[in-house]
Structures are given as structure tokens and as C-alpha cells.
Amino acid sequence: MIYHNEKALFIKIAERLCDDILSGCYTEGALVPSVRELAAEYEVNINTALRAFELLQRDNILLSQRGIGMSVAKGARKRILSARRKEFLQHELPDFMRRMELLGLTLDDIAREWRAQDGMEKVS
Amino acid sequence: MIYHNEKALFIKIAERLCDDILSGCYTEGALVPSVRELAAEYEVNINTALRAFELLQRDNILLSQRGIGMSVAKGARKRILSARRKEFLQHELPDFMRRMELLGLTLDDIAREWRAQDGMEKVS
DNA sequence: ATTAGTGTTATAGTGACTTAAGACACCGCA
DNA sequence: TGCGGTGTCTTAAGTCACTATAACACTAAT
Fold first, then answer.
1. Alpha carbons B97 and B105: distance in angstroms, whole number
2. In Å, how far is B40's CA from the nearest CA of chain A?
3. Reported confidence tier of residue A7, pLDDT bands at 50, 70, 90
4. What is the pLDDT of residues B13-69, one digit of tens each?
5. Other C-beta atoms within 10 Å of A24: how many?
6. How distant is the Cα of A35 from the closest Cα of chain B, in angstroms?
7. Which residues pair with A31 in a beta bridge?
8. Domain at A1-124, CATH from 1.20.58.1560, 1.20.120.610, 1.10.10.10, 3.20.20.370
9. pLDDT in tens, A35-63
10. Half-sphere exposure of B68 (CA within 13 A, CB side)
11. What angle is formed at CA A10 by the lines to CA B51 and CA A7, rounded to 5 degrees?
């Protein structure tokens, strides 16, 4: 449809940080950008960036050190991977398959479609 | 992660109605449940159910007839299918593939996993 | 000690979403 | 006509996400 369907900003930012940890952009023990840098990068209020950090602190993904910065916790990558796998298999995959089937598509169709569009990395 | 990530209620209800139109539960020209019935079914306020209907009216999915009810518009199914396909190919599929790759999975893995869990329709 | 960079807390305002309750307008049927 | 079912509108209140400011606490470097 044409709706917004947007997740909360601070959640998207947190997920993006997790993506970057998974992809090795931020290694364990390393410092991630400061609240203010992140807020500027995503053109968002400091409070919103802070809420993203609070989320990741609660899940033991980030460690906060006053005056220093936020660092990636030990085992963060493994924890993210584990949580993601669970979420993926229990919710994302079933939802994806359900919506796919409502469109009359199969996984094979998807695979073909994806390979076809794979070369066209053009985004406006 | 463990966040809520919930879409707005009225949007989920609208999407659910579209699902039911796609799956043939409501054929074109037929009446969908009344605002009050829908509100009761989803345990939601009447206004919330009404907003779902307003959304579908704006997209020419439903036709409202005062004193009668809301009926599925002509061509609604086709319009939904078209919009869904576009949304699916442009956003859902890329997002899905991105998250899949971050987990180190491939479409073949998914296909196997899905067939394996297919027989187990157990939900708690 | 000063400075500039960190994280943290507090207050206030806006807008979207939801609930609640009531009222109104229209249609079909007895 | 009256009744009960539709859709629609209004008003009020509450929650939540986001913004905007400002202030505070800590650390490292000068």
C-alpha cells in the first residue's frame, strides 16, 4: 500500500548499528561514533540517538563510559547474530513467505527475480 | 532484537483486509464487516477501525454506502496486487535479502529450512 | 586549571495514534 | 412511522516518538 509503515527512528538507528557490528564495521571493544556524531549523521535529535544507545546498552551490545564514549561489548556480535537468527526464523521468514504466497510467488521466482536485478545496483 | 516495532493498529487492520480480499475471502462488490463488527473483532476502538476504512477508501479499495456498509470496489484486487508487487520488489525483498546476508544465509538455505519446518504448523 | 570532547539528565512542546463516549445522517424493513 | 442496522463526525483525554534547549558529570589533553 501507500502507507508509511515506518519503525521508530531510534529503533532503526539501533538496528543500523547492529548491522555495522555484524558486518565488521565496528569490532568488539572499539568505540562507536558519539551520540552527537550519530545524531548529526542521521539528522536526528540527540535524544533520539541516545535512546538508540540505551536500547543497545540494555541488550549488552554497547558499553558506556562517561567521558570516553560507547564501545562494542564483548560477545556483542554473537549475541546479535543469535537474536537475529531467532527473530528471522520465527517472524521475518514466516511473514515474508505469507506475503510472497499472497502475491502468487514462489522462492524460485524470487531467486530468479533477484539474480536478474542483481546487476542493476542503480538507485535513484 | 526485542523491541516492539509495531505498525499502527489501523494500518495493520487495513492490510489484513487487503489480505482477505487477495485470498478471496471478500469478493469484489461484496460487503465487508461493519466498522463496529471489525472494531469488536480486533478488540479496537470504533475510530481506529474507521481510520482503516478511510485508508482503503482513499486508495479505491472500498466503497462506502451510508446506511448500507462498505463494499469491495471494482478492480480492488488488481490494484492491491499491483501495489503489493511494487512494494515487495522495491522494498521488502531487498530488505529481506540484506538481513539474510547479514546472517550468512542464502536463498537455498531458506528454501531448505522452510521445507523442513513446513510440516510443523505448531504455534503456541 | 582550562578546554573540548565524551555520556547523562531534565523540561517543554508538537504531532500521530488510540481510546472513550456521544451524537448525527442514512438505509431497509416491519 | 419507528426501529435497528449502517457510516460519519465531534470532543476529550492519554500515550508515545520526536524535537528543542539547557544543564550537569566525567575524561583526556593542553
1. 9
2. 24
3. confident
4. 999 999 999 999 999 999 999 999 999 999 999 999 999 999 999 999 999 999 999
5. 8
6. 20
7. A71
8. 1.10.10.10
9. 999 999 999 999 999 999 999 999 999 99
10. 11
11. 30
In single-letter form, the type of residue at position B108 comes to D
Which cell numbers in the block locate residue A99? 506475503
- Nearest residue, CB atoms, A11 vs list B3, B19, B96: B3
User: Other C-beta atoms within 10 Å of A1: how many?
Assistant: 17
Are A29 and A72 spatial neighbours (Cβ–Cβ below 8 Å)? yes
> Would you tell me which residues 73-112 of chain B have a C-beta closer than 8 angstroms to some C-beta of chain A?
80-81, 83-85, 87-89, 92-93, 96-97, 99-100, 102-103, 105, 107, 110-111
Sequence length of chain B is: 124
3-state SS assignment for residue A37: helix
Nearest by CB to A5, which of B1, B7, B84? B7
